[in-house]
Design a protein that fits this description.
With 375 residues, the chain is α/β, with parallel strands linked by helices. The chain has 11 helices and 12 strands. Helix 1 packs across helix 9 and helix 2 runs parallel beside helix 3. The radius of gyration is 20 Å and the shape is globular.
Length: 375
């Protein structure tokens, strides 16, 4: 049955300007970390550098909604690289240790390697380098891998939903071939970007026959394959629970052919449950955002393409940081920090947990789209 697609509600225009706390600076006199209303620290910032994409994956940017006439953001609305770098520095001062560049398709943003070069020197208040990574559909990776590595990128995640061309092309909906994504992964490995992760969104009846071929292909390659449950993110992908194949079932199918042993999580707030092949040929991950919510230690903030801060993937509103950067009165980094810290301190988001319990959740039709705030 074709996916039901709901027209786009444009959350991009709804954001009120974030107030500047006059004369207030955060943290008072020292760098440090900030906890939200549920005690969760801020550790991870995902930065969307473009709302455009050359794919039209039905679960993210269905063609029926994001067609020829969809208006993407004009260039002047996007945060420029200086603004992104300045904000990233502010977030790092508040405890962020990991930056993920995403989109849309981040490699469509011109001169992205210049941004990587600007972000790479950032250090935590204790002087440690950041974990700097990027998520891409891999379509332009073969061309860009060397420049990204030279600019200071350490590792990356490539999205790939199957090895069978007919299945993959139906999913990306632009006829993009599997071979070119695999070529991109090889190029990234060859220049020393790693460890490389491959994300596969699993939709029951659409690409679940690709689970085992993908596991067989990447086992023993050094690439970590991760299976993501199809999420009800945004408001346009016509999500239905019947299309979710629970991670437990994905794991059962893999373990029937390749026995698995559990691994401990590598960092607090880690989204993937990690398992190793019992024969030592690598690991796989399961991201069970639908069947096993991981809101309890969610430490992720998202910066949209036009500089709105979102504190949850399922949020219905952001907080306008660009307005502070471009406002008539200049703000210093202390004031920016105070504004971000105030937003984070008031954060109570735990959408997936509430949905899992059948409790009321933010208004579906008003939810922001994933290509705009970044995955
Ligand atoms: N274009 C890049 C890509 O596809 O890797 C980066 C942006 S994309 C929004 C980031 C990640 O979100 C991808 O791994 C994608 O598969 C995942 N994603 C998008 N929509 C999703 C959905 N409805 N459920 C689960 N994952 C989704
Ligand atoms: Fe583009 Fe990534 Fe969304 Fe697919 S998942 S449409 S590649 S942004
Ligand atoms: Fe974090 Fe929101 Fe996802 Fe929960 S639903 S894990 S709070 S982004």
């Amino acid at each position: 049955m074709p996916a039901r697609v709901i027209p786009l509600h444009d959350a991009r225009t709804l954001q009120p300007a974030l107030p500047v706390a006059a004369g207030r600076s955060w943290p008072p006199g020292q760098a440090g970390s900030v906890a939200d209303a549920l005690g969760r620290p801020l550790r991870d910032l995902r930065i969307s550098v473009t709302d455009r994409c050359n794919f039209r994956c039905g679960y993210c940017m269905p063609k029926q909604v994001f067609g020829k006439h969809h208006e993407f953001l004009p260039h002047a609305e996007l945060l420029n690289f200086e603004e992104i770098t300045r904000l990233a520095g502010v977030f790092v001062g508040l405890g962020v240790e990991k930056l993920r560049i995403t989109g849309g398709e981040p490699l469509l943003r011109r001169h992205l390697e210049t941004l990587i070069e600007m972000l790479a020197p950032l250090r935590t208040p204790a002087g440690r380098p950041l974990d700097l990574t990027l998520t891409t559909n891999g379509s332009m990776l073969a061309r860009k891998a060397a420049a990204l590595k030279a600019a200071g990128l350490q590792r990356l995640t490539v999205s790939l939903d199957g090895l069978n061309d007919a299945v993959f092309q139906r999913m990306n909906d632009v006829g993009f071939p599997v071979a070119e994504v695999l070529e991109g992964i090889r190029a990234a490995q060859a220049v020393g970007l790693g460890p490389i992760k491959v994300n596969m969104v699993v939709q029951r009846g659409v690409n679940d026959d690709q689970i085992l071929p993908m596991a067989r292909h990447f086992r023993g390659s050094g690439v970590v394959l991760r299976f993501i449950e199809f999420m009800d993110v945004g408001a346009t992908n016509g999500w239905r629970m019947e299309q979710v194949l629970p991670s437990a079932e994905v794991m059962r199918r893999i373990a029937a052919e390749f026995p698995l042993v559990p691994l401990s999580s590598s960092a607090p707030g880690e989204t993937a449950e990690r398992w190793a092949y019992a024969d030592g040929s690598g690991e796989v991950g399961f991201i069970s955002s639908v069947t096993q919510a991981f809101c309890g230690d969610c430490n992720r903030a998202r910066l949209s393409t036009e500089g709105q801060l979102y504190t949850c993937l399922f949020a219905t509103r952001g907080h306008d940081l660009r307005g502070l950067l471009r406002g008539a009165a200049p703000v210093d980094d202390g004031q920016l920090s105070a504004a971000v810290a105030a937003v984070w301190a008031g954060r109570t988001d735990r959408y997936s947990q509430l949905r899992g319990r059948g409790a009321p959740t933010p208004d579906g039709p008003r939810r922001v789209e994933m290509h705009y705030i970044g995955g």
